[in-house]
Amino acid sequence: MGFLISSHSGHLCVDGKRVLKPLTEGLFPSDQFCDGDLSIPSTDRNILTVSQCFLDLYINPMGMLQEKRSKGKKWLHSTSEIEMKFGKSSPAKEQESPLKSPTPTSDNQTRGWHLFTIHTLHRFFWKDFDCIRGSRKLEETDDYHWWMENSNGDMIDLTEEQYRITKIPTLRKSGKKLLPLGHRYSATSKAMAHRMTELLSSNHYDASMIDQHANAYMKR
């Protein structure tokens, strides 16, 4: 049985237990990502650092995102607000420092984030981790749950909390390995990863160096 990286109320957890917040800014050399290759070794330290950076830059400041389906009863996680805010690459700003991220306020902090989370983190750890989609569509969200997993059974699932809150016990049962999605998810995850790497390396660089689609960045 491998480890599980998740989050609870905006805090990073390993195997369900909260861990000390890792430092993120300037951890990597300034030229680490300048050639557009974002892949890094899947060490415990790197996984925790990148996961914390994603929480602090995106999930914690924005919190739960929802919009009502036009046809009525069910609620669908919003993607439009995330795309509008992060869909294009721009230099990381001083006020976006993870060290200055606001305290989470939502009791369902990760709701709406699972696809953007795994598509962004996969760019860093694709050499060891695969994107996995659950086998059962969840009635409440009319969607599948996604997470990342390697051959040892180690899992990265920063957004599992949204399903635990709704008491879905088998969210990762019989998952299927799939390639990352294209279109809006590839464009937005590229921009989000670019902003993360600028903070992780304390260096601004040209976002056009980063491949947008998985079939390109997974060939580096």
Please provide a written account of the structure.
With 220 residues, this protein is of the alpha+beta class. It has one domain. Helices cover 30% and strands 14% of the residues. The protein has helices at 44-62, 80-86, 114-125, 161-165, 184-201, 214-217; strands at residues 4-8, 11-14, 17-18, 66-68, 75-77, 130-133, 146-149, 155-156, 176-178. Strand 1 and strand 2 form a beta hairpin. The radius of gyration is 16 Å and the shape is globular.
Note the main attributes of this structure.
single chain; 220 residues; 7-stranded mixed β-sheet; two-stranded antiparallel ribbon; globular
Summed up, the domain count is: 1
**Major β-sheet annotation:** 7 strands, mixed
- What oligomeric state best describes the polypeptide chains here? single chain
The unreliable regions are 73-77
Count of individual beta strands: 9
Evaluate the radius of gyration. Answer: 16 Å
DSSP helix fraction: 25-40%
Number of helices: 6
Order of helices and strands: EEEHEEHHEEEHEHH
For the biggest β-sheet, the strand order reads: 3-2-1-8-7-6-9
Shape verdict: globular
Structural class: alpha+beta
End-to-end distance: 30 Å
What proportion of the residues form beta strands (DSSP E)?
Answer: 5-15%
- Nearest-integer average pLDDT: 82
